[in-house]
Amino acid sequence: MKRQVLFVQGGGERVHDEWDNKLVESLVRELGPDYEIRYPRMPNEVDPQYASWTAALEKELGKLRDGAILVGHSIGGTILINALAEHAARWTPGGVFLISAPFVGEGSWPAADIGSMSDLGTRLPARVPVYLYYGSKDDTVPTKHTGLYEKAIPAALIRRLASRDHQLNNDLSEVAADVRQLG
After folding, report:
1. Average pLDDT over residues 29-42
2. Closest CA relative to residue 31, chosen from 97, 85, 109, 91
3. CB neighbours of 79 closer than 8 A, spacing ≥ 6?
4. What integer is the mean pLDDT of 31-59?
5. Partners of residue 79 on adjacent β-strands
6. On the CB side of 67, how many CA atoms lie within 13 Å of its CA?
């Protein structure tokens, strides 16, 4: 049986079809045929709203088996990790992988519909590995967000990738290698 992977897109105009689809293509190529990648279109991608994206995520999570891998890019990753922290899953993910995810709260991005993330690590499912990836040339999410996540989720593995942009130069080989290591 193939291992399931849910990829949650970032926000912005035409992101699903013209930007993050390249990340998904890289992940499909790097992971190979033993993985089933789900890539749903999130509602109103131009203006991501926590409530509507969380509702869409709840439906998608309901289609996954225990141990599925969750991957989120940019604001999609931020919404994904917060939804996991807020809503107890009926199953346990095999791992959570955030790519260029902005941190929301004091000293970072404001968001009226996402609460404080400072205690995020204490609200996530126990023993679920969390990986974060940031490019040194990301001009969308400042590098200080990495440190904020490190404080909020002390057990997270942070990968800082040199000379990579917000899209990690459309290369998710490091993400795929970490996913494969989970078994």
Report:
1. 98
2. 97
3. 8, 48, 50, 53, 54, 57, 72, 114
4. 96
5. none
6. 9
User: Average of pLDDT values for 55-64?
Assistant: 94
**What are the structure tokens assigned to 67, written together?**
């141990």
CA–CA separation, 110 vs 105, rounded Å?
6
Strands 130-135 and 3-8: unpaired
Could you give phi then psi for residue 9, rounded to 5 degrees? Answer: -65, 165
Task: Identify the residue whose tokens are 């967000």.
Answer: 145
pTM over 0.70: yes
Measured CA to CA, the distance from residue 134 to residue 137 in angstroms comes to: 9
pLDDT over threshold 90, residue 47: yes
By C-alpha distance, which of 19, 39, 37, 42 is closest to 140?
19
For residue 162, what pLDDT is reported? 97
Rg (CA), the chain: 15
